[in-house]
Design a protein that fits this description.
Mean pLDDT: 85
Low-confidence stretches: 1-12, 60-68, 302-327
Order of helices and strands: EHEEHHEEHEHEHEHEEHEEH
Largest sheet: 6 strands, parallel
Structural class: alpha/beta
Oligomer: single chain
Strand order of the largest sheet: 2-1-3-4-5-11
Distance between the termini: 75 Å
Shape: elongated
Number of helices: 9
Helix content: 25-40%
Length: 327
C-alpha cells in the first residue's frame, strides 16, 4: 500500500524526537543538564521535547496517583530520557518504574540513576565523597561538621550522600551531632534557613557545612556573608554539582563535580545509534567518575590560611544577627 510516503526516504534519515522527563527548569543543576541536552540534541539533529511539572510525588509515602505531569505520549516521541532522582527524589525506582511501564514501544534512557531493566548512565559518588571528607578532616583538621540534606528517604540520593559521609567520618572518630543535621529540599531557601539556624545561637557552631547540592550551599554562603560571617575563614562550605552559579560568590566554591556534558553526549550518541539501527537497545549500565574540586570555600585559599585554620575553633554566636539584605 502506498501511503504517500517517499519510498527513497529511509528510517535513518528521519529527524527523531526525544522526550525528556525532568521536574523543572528552575534549579541550577537542571539548567546545567538542560543546556547540555539542547547542545547535544543539535549535534545529533534531534528534536527535544521537555516534560516539566514538578515532582511525580508529593511526599515520602505518596503513590502513583500523585503524578503532576502531562506525561509524554509514546506515540509522539521516538525515545525518552528520564532523571529518576530528579522527578521522584523519595522513591526514584518505584515511582519512575510505575510510569515507564507504559513506554514498552520506545527505548528509555536513565541519567544519574541505575534504573533496573533500563539503559542507565550513572556516577560513582562513593569514591569522590571519600576524597572530599578525608580532605576536610586530614588537610583542614575540621572536627565540627554540619550537613544540610535534600529530600530525605531511604532511597534518595541525599540520604546516600549523608550515609557515606557519616561512614567516613566515623572512621576518624567524628560524629555529626543531631543539632548539626539540617533538613532541606535542594533550594536556595533551604541554604538560607540552615545558615540562619547556625547564626541564631545554636549550642555549637560548625567549622564546615556540607550541603547536598550547590544551590543550597549558595544560599547558605550568601546568608553568612550578609551577616558578616566570612567564608571560609569563620565557616567553610562545600557542596555537590559544581554549577556555574557558584561564580556569583566572592570566593570560589569547593564542590563535587559531575561530568554532565560527557554523560549527556554519550547517552545522546547511544540514542542515535539505537534509533538508526547501528546498535541494539539493551539495559546496559555505563559509569562515570566525579571529581572533588578543591577551591577557596573549603579553606583552600593559601598555605598560610590553611595553617591558621588547623586546630582553630569558632566561638558560638550568642545573638541572632539581622541579615544585611533585610535591613
Amino acid at each position: 500500500m502506498n501511503d504517500g510516503a517517499d519510498p527513497t526516504k529511509t528510517r535513518a534519515s528521519k529527524r527523531y524526537t526525544v522526550g525528556v522527563l525532568i521536574d523543572s527548569v528552575n534549579s541550577f543543576f537542571n539548567q546545567k543538564n538542560i543546556g547540555a541536552l539542547i547542545e547535544s540534541a543539535e549535534e545529533n539533529d534531534f528534536q527535544l521535547v521537555f516534560y516539566f511539572g514538578g515532582f511525580l510525588e508529593k511526599g515520602k509515602n505518596c503513590g502513583a496517583s500523585s503524578y503532576a505531569y502531562t506525561l509524554p505520549d509514546p506515540d509522539l516521541i521516538d525515545a525518552l530520557i528520564v532523571y529518576p532522582h530528579n522527578v521522584s527524589p523519595f522513591d526514584p525506582n518505584g515511582v519512575t518504574r510505575a510510569i515507564l511501564d507504559q513506554y514498552q514501544k520506545i527505548p528509555v534512557y536513565s541519567i544519574l540513576y541505575d534504573l533496573p531493566d533500563t539503559f542507565s548512565a550513572t556516577v560513582d559518588e562513593d569514591a569522590v565523597i571519600d576524597e572530599m571528607v578525608r580532605h576536610l578532616v586530614e588537610k583542614h583538621a575540621y572536627r565540627k561538621i554540619a550537613f544540610l540534606s535534600g529530600p530525605d528517604s531511604p532511597h534518595s540520593c541525599s540520604h546516600a550522600r549523608q550515609t557515606r559521609i557519616t561512614e567516613i567520618l566515623a572512621g576518624f572518630g567524628i560524629e555529626i551531632p543531631a543539632n548539626m543535621l539540617f533538613a532541606g529540599d535542594f533550594t536556595t531557601e533551604s541554604g538560607i534557613k540552615a545558615a540562619q539556624t547556625i547564626l541564631s545561637g545554636s549550642d555549637s557552631v560548625p567549622e564546615v557545612l556540607i550541603c547536598a547540592n550547590d544551590q543550597m550551599a549558595i544560599g547558605a554562603v550568601k546568608e553568612f556573608l550578609n551577616n558578616g560571617i566570612s567564608v571560609p575563614e569563620e565557616i567553610a562550605v562545600v557542596g555537590f554539582d559544581d554549577v556555574e552559579e557558584n561564580n556569583s560568590l566572592p570566593q570560589s566554591s569547593s564542590s563535587i563535580s559531575f561530568p554532565i556534558w560527557e554523560i549527556v553526549s554519550t547517552v545522546m550518541a547511544r540514542i542515535a545509534d539505537d534509533l538508526s539501527g547501528k546498535s541494539t537497545y539493551t539495559a546496559e549500565k555505563i559509569h562515570f567518575s566525579a571529581r572533588f574540586m578543591r577551591r577557596a570555600s573549603c579553606g583552600c585559599t593559601s598555605w598560610h590560611a590553611q595553617t591558621d585554620r588547623k586546630g582553630g575553633s569558632i566561638a558560638p554566636i550568642e545573638e541572632i544577627r539581622a541579615s544585611y539584605a533585610s535591613q
